[in-house]
């Protein structure tokens, strides 16, 4: 029985910052950001957005009445949780109108948790083929103003419906994975911004990909020529190239050129959004599915990485008609409709987040958007609405 990704939705907030302008404001050469890092624009998060609103907005456009009736579990992967006890999944369950008779859980392991959630969903549906699982992977990458990580900020959420006989891709049973304690990225519980050793993180990312690729080949017998493309976790788009370059000598010149084109296709959306941690690799997948040169039955590689560190490499097989299943969402149009903000406006928005639950306060949420919004704190509780 085939189990995999049946639907795939994406959402990012409606404000954006041109990284050329940020580079000028920080006294850096724009090429450092746009070429060296590989980022052009980053999403800016207003104080009426959080992982719950982004996850709900990503999911609500792809869910049908049939989905709502058959979803038995909601897995919410994030490292930007809004409560140390109550899961984002519980908020999302009610806001999406899901049945009360389902399991809801939040998962955390840096940027990797979305993949763990996807694999748990696959296992559940394999045992319960008449049921579906909703997996949401959403985050806000927040490093602080004028920090080395500032250029790799961003935000957004991916929503995936996992089912039997999926419309997009089958998840193959070929995963290889590894974990080890590495101090490359972390966020203490008393901090609203992350800490990162960028060079170490890049080294560990590349090392884990190469190690898992070798292990994958040993266990499956597959070669690079068996793949029509890869979706990488992209904290910045150049990272995927660094990983793939390590194995390019295993392909002939024609295959190398093709894989580079496919890699570029997978980077289109992330380049315009920035880092969304748990959702990053699946935004790259959506970009590859919509912008790449793909046909039914092809195999795609997926490399998921989470600092700290944990990684997994597995493959998907595209099912007939996958292109129609992913054609409903015009991501480029969504990104183009964002409002550009100046560096000064971005800095003010960055500082306007409502982190203090001890005060009754309202966010800047506008009316009439039709979107799920965080409207503020009341008696220590978070309040949401569809405006």
- Number of individual domains: 2
How many beta-strand segments? 18
N-C termini distance? 41 Å
**Class from secondary-structure proportions:** alpha+beta
Shape: globular
Helix content: 25-40%
CATH-derived architecture of the largest domain: 3-Layer(aba) Sandwich
According to CATH, the homologous superfamily of the largest domain is: Thiolase/Chalcone synthase
The number of helical runs is 13
* CATH topology (fold) name of the largest domain: Peroxisomal Thiolase, Chain A, domain 1
Mean pLDDT: 96
Radius of gyration computed on alpha carbons: 20 Å
Low confidence ranges: none
Sheet with most strands: 10 strands, mixed
Strand content: 25-35%
What is the CATH class of the largest domain? Alpha Beta
Write the layout of secondary structure elements.
Blueprint: E1 3-11, E2 15-18, H1 19-25, H2 30-37, E3 41-44, H3 51-60, H4 65-70, E4 71-77, H5 88-96, E5 103-107, H6 113-127, E6 132-141, E7 154-164, E8 169-171, E9 176-179, E10 185-186, E11 195-196, H7 198-220, E12 230-232, H8 238-244, H9 253-273, H10 280-291, E13 299-306, E14 310-318, H11 322-325, H12 331-336, E15 339-340, H13 343-350, E16 361-362, E17 372-378, E18 381-386
Parallel strand pairs: 2-15, 4-5, 4-6, 12-13
Antiparallel strand pairs: 1-7, 1-8, 2-3, 6-7, 8-14, 9-14, 10-11, 13-14, 16-17, 17-18
Protein name: Hydroxymethylglutaryl-CoA synthase
Pfam families: HMG_CoA_synt_C, HMG_CoA_synt_N
Domain Hydroxymethylglutaryl-coenzyme A synthase N-terminal: 3-164
